[in-house]
Amino acid sequence: MNFANIPSPVVNTEQLPESLSRRAFFGGKSVAAAAVTAAISVPSLTQAAVPGSEIDDTLHIINRLTMGVTPALYVDVNAMGVDAFIEQQLDPSSIDDTETEAMVSQFARLDMSAAELQTIKKRAPIRQELHGATVIRAVHSNRQLQEVMVDFWSNHFNVDTHKKGTAFYKPADDKGIRELALGNFSDLLMFTAKSPAMLEYLDNRQSRANRNRIPNENYARELMELHTLGVDGGYSEDDVLAVSYVLSGWSIKEGEFRFNANANRLGPLNDGGDVMGWVPFVRERSVENGESLINFLAYQPATANFVCWKLCRYFVRDDIEQYHPLVAQVAEVFSQNDTEIVPTLSAIFASDEFRQSKGEKVKRSNELMYSILRATGAAINVEQPQRLGNHLRKHLLKMDQGLFECEPPTGYPVEASAYINTNAMVNRWNIGFAIAANRLSKYVRVNQMSWIDSPANVKELVEQLSQRLMSRQLEASEKQALYSQLGKAPEDVVKRRDIRQIKTLAGLIFASSSFQIR
Amino acid sequence: MFNSKFSRRQFLKTAAAAIALPTLSSLSSVSFASNGQADHTVINVFLRGGMDSLSAVIPYAEKAYFEARPTIAIPEAGRTALNEQFALHSAMSPLKSLYDNGDLAFVVAAGLGAASTTRSHFSAQRRMESGSDDNMQMDGWLGRYLASNTDSGAVFRGVGMGKVQKSLRGFTPALGLSSLASFKIKARGVNASSVPDSLRKLYEGMDHPILVDEASRTLSALEVAASNALGSSAKPADYGTSKVGGALHQVAELLNANIGLEAANVDMGGWDFHREMGSWNGGDLSIKFSELSGALAAFYNEISARQGNVTIVVMSEFGRRVKENTSGGADHGKGGAMMVIGNGIAGGQVYGTWPGLAPENLDKGDLKITTDYRQVLSELVDRRLGRPDLLDVTFPDYTPDQYLGICS
Predict the structure, then answer these.
(1) Are the C-beta atoms of A66 and A373 separated by less than 8 Å?
(2) Helix (H, G, I), strand (E, B) or coil at A79
(3) DSSP code at position A503
(4) Who has the most CB within 10 Å: A220, A330, B115, B342?
(5) Domains of chain B listed by start with CATH number
(6) So what's the ipTM on this one?
(7) In A, residues 406-425, which contact B (CB 8 Å cutoff)?
């Protein structure tokens, strides 16, 4: 089996001698260095000072701008400073990501056109490849903030690949969202409005208003309620109907957007109606009216408030109020910068509320999986992209986070109170045990021995694991739980039996509330 | 050491189940209660997306129905008469015998109260699950009911399948479950049996506002699940392969395990038919009806020993527009339909005042709502659960004028 970027074989813990030498753990370069951030060498565990359990500024920024910390990334951000890191991440084109792209290029279906995919017909392999590629990007990409934003926008502009033929259109939709994830919101909105995936998912492809037919309201309603203004954004039921007329005829042909002029009518807007002040500026059967209306919605103050509120909930804390001063301030930046996403995020990242919100977010279940894969330095084999994707998908589904498989157009919730429940909790624990024990997928391998370095006693064992996997220390009471798992006192020497429990100890670290927050 | 956020009570309960603590006499009654049978269990089945009630309980006697829906009206071949006014979609025939036996009642033209004008799925669902007209009501009707009802001490009093839905909010100990069969900790190797205990210790000293309580609940639920071998019962074939069938079977297993289940919420998604409802015979909407009806009938069968102590309420956030749209579907509407199932109800009838479908009788193109959904639920709480004292807390801003007489 050819594991990408993993130079050394997985060390079998059963074969380890009682006395552990550092050389025995590291057959060569550490897995983390090679697999996660190839350009950066991993710091020696003994070099790194062992700080406390607090989330420092470096770790906080990494927690929020990325899918999870790695020891190498921590060292790197510490060296360059958090502001330089923010600036770098806000400019993904400046970051080399050839290695990730090489891995993702194995997912052949994601590069096919919708028409080609429709010819092949099968949808399940598309979903599998989407999972595989998304997880690989989340785990490996150096453009971490871009992937975080792809995740945000993929939920904001949710598409469920189980609806009708949506799966055939999703690869192109995903590509577009990634290109625009740190671009301009009005461009992104226009892109999704014309994206066949969205046209299929929210039924607009079938919306025709000619011959006195009634257009389909589905997209028009969610466009205003979920994508732009928000449910309290000031639109009426009449507006929903009017917008559905303006967008009638926005359809799909041969896998691409097509404006069917014959099916486009303006309905009530022909009789002097308006949509919150917007009026058609050319005659009906023109695509320009719909484009103008979508731009109009993108630039509404209610849209700025709604989108920026969602961003603040995503990046700062779950319970930030819709009319919190920070939201207003960020919305102002959004509006004044032509709905550009980069200055909007900069404003959030520069705010006191953001800087002071350490640990106030819980990792969503997909983020938890990515962060464990990053922390463990997992090597991912992409030789069987669909099988790999299938394994990853199964685990995400157990945690109710199947990618692009959220049925309602709201996307998955961002508030922990909505997604943390008994089932999620068990599966959030189990995924850590599974990854640490190489039970996630046979295409995903971690090297447990690379996480420790000749610990002198049980206390050092726990501290090394904690530092390696979290870039900080567990709380004292959490460490006690790990000692108790071993049935040892902190000062006891490390025995082979303890080493065999590294996967369990790591699983407990991943299960801890310290690891589950960001 | 226990942090205040960690539920000491719940921990002791589990400890009592795990190891004998004879000196704490009060605990024995707690652990007895957690293995007992609840007096009554409410199963709320929520059809998300706006179920097209006009295709389910078909007003076949009305000309306006066929005029408004030239391509999607259910023809004679696809329906079975319930009475002179309404017929049941033939894909729902698994429920016909329940209706004929008097164990199933329909309520037509039911929905949100008059205060609601929303056609947003999410606003309508939130409001319906809250049981209140107040948009700021953060908890749900079942949650408030459970929180006010006598605490039996059972861990599995309130369960949301898939997640803890809004209707159960307000009852903090509610559990969200998906698959009972995989509801276990999967750590392996040396000392793996110590892992649950280590997990408990891992959370005990911490004070995270959400994770710590949930960890405590989860560990308690895992113990009850293990000691009752939950997840081991085979799913009867008549459930079919639908998700809702899988969820209802698990609720049946919880009921049959006698672990004190008082309320469960089961979701069924995919009802937002803006297009392509399809033929009555095999079309997409008929498949939904078939999945729902098959699963409900199989569930009712699986809990045969306690049909008199269980009530199933089926609802959806709204019905769909009377007039069909351009794509063989219908957009969001108002009035919908509810179902109430249980032995001992006055079933075999279609309840509610029918406002009619003629254009002049519609509310902006929608079926009018003549029965507030809470009228049905209030009657359930009052007459079937026998808790008139809990009506005020369950439905804080609603008082019914009268009952329909379903739970006489």
Answers:
(1) no
(2) helix
(3) H
(4) A330
(5) 40-180+230-394 (3.40.720)
(6) 0.89
(7) 407-408, 410, 416-425
